[in-house]
Structure formats: structure tokens, C-alpha cells
Amino acid sequence: MKPRAYAASLAALATAVMFGVMSSQAAAFSACQVTDTGGVDDKGFNQTAWKGVQDAQASLGVEGKLLESSAETDYEPNINSFISEGCDLILTVGFLLGDATKTAADANPDQKFSIVDFAYDPPAPNILGQVFATDEAAFLAGYLAAGVSKSGIVGTFGGINIPPVTIFMDGFVRGVDYYNAQKGTNVTVLGWDVDSREGLFTNNFDSLDDGRAFAQNLYDEGADIVMPVAGPVGLGSAALADELGTDQLKIIGVDADQYNTDPEKQHVYLTSVLKKMDATVVAAIEAAMGDWEGGVIVGTLENGGVGLAPFHDLDSAVSDELKAELEAISSGIIDGSISVKG
Questions:
Q1: Closest CA relative to residue 142, chosen from 237, 229, 208
Q2: Partners of 229 in the beta sheet?
Q3: Among residues 265, 273, 267, which one has the least CA distance to residue 236?
Q4: Whether pLDDT at 21 is above 60
Q5: Model confidence over 87-142: pLDDT tens digits?
Q6: 148: Cβ contacts below 8 Å, ≥ 6 apart
Q7: Within this chain, do residues 182 and 78 fall inside the same structural domain, yes or no?
Q8: 322 plus 189 within the same structural domain
Q9: What residues form DSSP beta bridges with 308?
Q10: Distance between CA atoms of 311 and 313, rounded to whole angstroms?
Q11: Pairing between strand 306-308 and 269-275?
Q12: Among 142, 214, 258, 282, fewest CB within 10 Å belongs to which?
């Protein structure tokens, strides 16, 4: 081989080896997600959290792993499986994994964990909680619903009566109340009472039939806009709205922009209350790769961790005046002049 050709070959080999070393180092960090029973294709928070892992794979070069839970009895085995595999960061998704995550963290103090929709008091040194002020964005959704409703009745229902679900419902009801106070109207909310903490719950996050039935009941009582806070269950509500027509029933999605995640029924979504788990998951992974501390990440309107999705196909249903009011209310929530707590 000629010297020049040999040198070029050697340089190429060195580059290849260096690239291999760099790739190996980047992939050496593993971020391992355990879903709740909604599964990774729930069109909501499990899927959005997994998008965060995928984003970290693309931007940070980490390795992403996934285990889906079919039942609550899968939580502990799935977490322990990832501990056995030596995952650098174990991401658990959902309030219902709170106990299993804490038990595993206590038993494995050197293992890093992050959990979506849960924060511990006092904070655990090896767990980073990811929580969201979704009542801020849901307040906007309630005000919007009250302003768009033709019947003067709107509704909501949840999957399970737990704080990450009811915080949406709280904000929604208080947003409607704020509209009534500002406009002198009497728009009614069915499905949740913020004082008694009683309302409509399917007691699951997977039955599309329940989503359809609960939305049907609310529609039969006069509601022309419904916000299901129940993961994939809400897809059943969207199917009903598709059949009835959006002049009869509109849906407000939660977690992700349902216009994008439910493309077959996208035209029924007035908006979605966004909980941007993908961004906080990336932030948690970055923290775990650097100077690690337990504690809490809070997504708010101010830092972009929560928000309202665009109105998409139903943009014409929202007047310019109402859009301006929503912008002003958002600013008021951020500067503290408007309280979403009632």
C-alpha cells in the first residue's frame, strides 16, 4: 500500500474507532421508562413521557428502554427488572406508581429515579418528581368552554379520583366560574364539585366504552363541551362527538394535543390542556447525567410546562374577543393577579 493511501486508511480507522468510542460513551447512559396501565400508546401522558425519552436519545445520545404495565401488580417487577439491568435512570409514569417507586428507591439508595405526576414530602434524595400546575391551563380551558358553549352547560369526568386527575377538573370548574363572574352568566359544569370533591369517574384509564357512555350521559344532560381526564378513555368520548357532530358536542383533550394524537377524530377537539412531560423528562435525564439532586420539577404556564393547544379546525368557533381574553388571563395567572385556586 502506498504511504499516502496507508495514512488515509489509518486516519479513517482512527476516526472510526473514535466515533465508536464516542457512540459507546453516549449510549452508556440508559433511561428506562415504566408506564402505568394506560400503556405507551395511550395518546396521552405515557406516550408524551416516552417522547421525552426518544427526544433525549436524539439530542443526548442516551439509550432508551421501555416496560409497559398491564396491571398495577406489574409496577414493582418492572422497576426491579430495570434495577437488575443497571439502568442509570428509571422513569416511572403516573401517580399510581408512587408507592412502588418509593419502595424501590429506599431499597436502592444509589439508584436514580424520576417519577411523573408525583412529589414526595419530604423529598427523597434519589427521586426527582415531575409535577405540573395543570389547573393553570385547565382554568383557561374552562373559561374557553364557557365562552364557546351554546347550551350554557359543559361537563368533565375523570378516570380515577386522584390528584393528578382532579387538578385538571378543579382548574376547569374554576375557569368556568371566573367566566361567569366576569360576564354575569350562569354556565353550569357537570361532573365535578370542587368543594365536596365528588364527581364522575370511570375508575379506569383504558375503557373507550366508558368514555363514550360518560360523554353520552353528560350530553344527554345538556353539555355541548366535555373534558375527559382519563387517558385513552377520552377517545371514546371523541368517537361520540364525531358521530353527533361538533355543532352538538366538542371535546377538550388533556395531556397531549389530541388533535395530533387522535388524527381520525381530530376535528372534534376544541383544544387540549397540555402537560409537557416530554420537556420535563428530558430535563430529568439531563439532571441525572450531571449533578444529580432529588426534589421536584414543576411545569407551569410561566415556564411552558403546561398550556393550551391551538384550536385547529375549530378556530372559527373562538371569537377574537375570547382569544384576547384568554391571553390576558394567561398573563394574569403568570403575574399572580388571577388565582386559579378559587
A1: 229
A2: 158
A3: 265
A4: no
A5: 999 999 999 999 999 999 999 999 999 999 999 999 999 999 999 999 999 999 99
A6: 225, 250, 270, 317, 318, 322
A7: no
A8: yes
A9: 273
A10: 6
A11: antiparallel
A12: 282
Residue type, 28: A
Dihedral angle sign, alpha carbons of residues 87, 93, 97, 99: positive
Q: Work out how many domains the chain is built from and give that number.
A: 2
Q: Is residue 62 part of a domain?
A: yes
Q: Which residues are CB-contacts of 169 (< 8 A; sequence separation ≥ 6)?
A: 138, 156, 158, 191, 192, 194, 199, 227, 229
DSSP E strand boundaries for 230-339: 250-255, 269-275, 295-299, 306-308
- Does an H or E element contain 331, and which? helix 320-335
Residues 187 and 330 occupy one common structural domain? yes
Q: Of 95, 122, 132, 89, nearest to 284 (Cα)?
A: 89
Q: How far apart are CA 252 and CA 324, in angstroms?
A: 19
Q: What pLDDT, in 10s, does the model give residues 43-94?
A: 888 999 999 999 999 999 999 999 999 999 999 999 999 999 999 999 999 9
Clarify whether residues 187 and 116 are in a common domain.
no
Range of the domain at 221: 134-274+311-335
Sorted by sequence, the CB contacts under 8 Å of residue 113 that are 6+ apart come out as 89, 90, 91, 92, 101, 104, 105, 124, 126, 127, 128
CATH (domain of 99): 3.40.50.2300
Q: Are 207 and 215 in contact (CB under 8 A)?
A: no
426491579: which residue's cell?
80
Q: Answer whether residue 305 is part of any domain.
A: no
Residues 6+ apart with CB under 8 A from 42: 35, 205, 231, 232
What pLDDT score does 23 carry? 44
Instruction: Give the list of residues 6+ apart from residue 283 with CB closer than 8 angstroms, or none.
Output: 297
